[in-house]
Automatic annotation (TrEMBL):
Keyword Transmembrane helix in annotation: yes
Keywords: Membrane, Transmembrane, Transmembrane helix
Spans traversing the lipid bilayer: 6-22, 34-52, 104-125, 132-157, 169-196, 203-222, 242-260, 272-292, 298-314, 321-341
Any one Pfam family match given in the protein's UniProt record, by short name: EpsG
Protein origin, superkingdom: Bacteria
InterPro entries: EpsG-like
Lineage: Bacteria, Bacillati, Bacillota, Erysipelotrichia, Erysipelotrichales
Organism, scientific name: Erysipelothrix larvae
Record flagged with keyword Membrane: yes
The protein's name: EpsG family protein
Length: 354
């Protein structure tokens, strides 16, 4: 776990240096340049860790590497008969022709998955360091070690957010379709465009609470129907996902206490709230389906910019700083707990060289 600890320390040092430098530069242009460098360095170190890992780090990575190795000697027409989505298959074939090496393959996948995250945080986060910590603490980063196809889909989804803000429906739909070529579950994010501008009122919140209660009661038959209709290999299994649901709900409630203030700074914050709410609502089904969280996170991943937006809306500077550091400490604590469970099998870390 040492390298993951070093990673967090370097992120902290990076943020501290960034803070010191920006204190001496009041120009927005200079601040943006410094911010870009800081985010670039953090993104680079996250990619580097993925690039230098042993090719057995990650619970599902062996399956993906076996497929990549078969892509070297198998024709594309035969590969397209595989259960993987066509976009992922074509990407594997292309990389296998240009760079037929497992380590280079993992590095390219890391670049594809992490660069869009860095760009997203640069464009839309009030506090980039906190966004990276949220991204790491909620195990989105850990997931990249294992879920290669869906991590690519998540990266494309984050990119599509720009078109939601610009209200460019065709461009948005094209990106969602493109994401589905790597993991078909990405199609679930289509609803994001249409709920982005829905302003939540008291009656709407009450209706949502009632709907969520009904969904929780009916979660078993509803999940059974969906899984049998679309994913026959996914069984109904009682899981211990309540802790994640409770924790995520508490964070959402905390964000809601600043709802009318946060949306004053940006109308797009309304959409961030709506995505996270929908994510929490779907999270209830995680108690009966072990793979539901993969669907949930298409929406809940936007928590990494919602929390900084909410904290930014605080007027008292001292309170803002206190909560900022409090949230960071909380995220670090959560990350340590998740790493002890190690569901993605990334501990202990091993380098790819002997």
């Amino acid at each position: 776990m040492t390298i993951y600890g070093i990673n967090l320390i370097l992120i902290g040092i990076n943020a501290f240096i960034f803070r010191l430098i920006t204190l001496n530069h009041q120009s927005d242009t200079k601040r943006k340049k410094i911010k870009k460098v800081m985010i670039g360095l953090i993104t680079f170190q996250l990619i580097l860790i993925l690039a230098i890992r042993d090719d057995l780090i990650g619970v599902d990575v062996k399956v993906y590497l076996d497929f990549f190795e078969s892509a070297r000697s198998t024709t594309l027409s035969v590969l397209l008969e595989n259960r993987f989505e066509n976009g992922y298959i074509i990407l594997n074939k292309l990389i296998s022709v240009l760079f037929p090496d497992n380590q280079i393959f993992l590095t390219i996948i890391a670049l594809i998955c992490l660069i869009p995250v860095g760009v997203f945080i640069y464009r839309y986060s009030r506090y980039p360091t906190m966004s990276f910590l949220l991204y790491i603490a909620f195990e989105y980063y850990s997931f990249v070690f294992s879920g290669l196809r869906q991590s690519i889909a998540y990266a494309i989804i984050l990119t599509s957010y720009t078109f939601i803000r610009q209200r460019k429906l065709v461009s948005f739909l094209l990106l969602i379709f493109f994401a589905s070529l790597f993991h078909r579950s990405a199609l679930i994010f289509v609803f994001a465009y249409f709920i982005h501008t829905i302003h939540l009122k008291k009656i709407t919140v009450i209706a949502l609470l009632g709907l969520n209660l009904l969904l929780f009661i009916l979660r078993v038959p509803l999940y059974t129907w969906v899984s049998q209709s679309f994913y026959s290999s996914y069984e109904v299994v009682e899981s211990a996902a309540y802790n994640r649901l409770i924790f995520s709900t508490v964070i959402l409630i905390g964000c809601f206490t600043r709802y009318r203030y946060a949306i004053q700074y940006s109308k797009h914050t309304i959409g961030l709230y709506n995505y996270v709410i929908l994510g929490c609502s779907m999270m209830m089904f995680a108690s009966v389906g072990t793979n539901v969280m993969r669907i949930v996170d298409y929406y809940y991943i936007f928590i990494i910019v919602l929390v900084p937006e909410v904290i930014y809306s605080l007027k008292d500077y001292k309170v803002k700083v206190l909560i900022n550091y409090g949230v960071m400490i909380l995220m670090l604590s959560i990350y340590i707990v998740f790493m002890q469970v190690d569901g993605f099998e990334i501990v202990p870390f091993r380098f790819f060289w002997p």
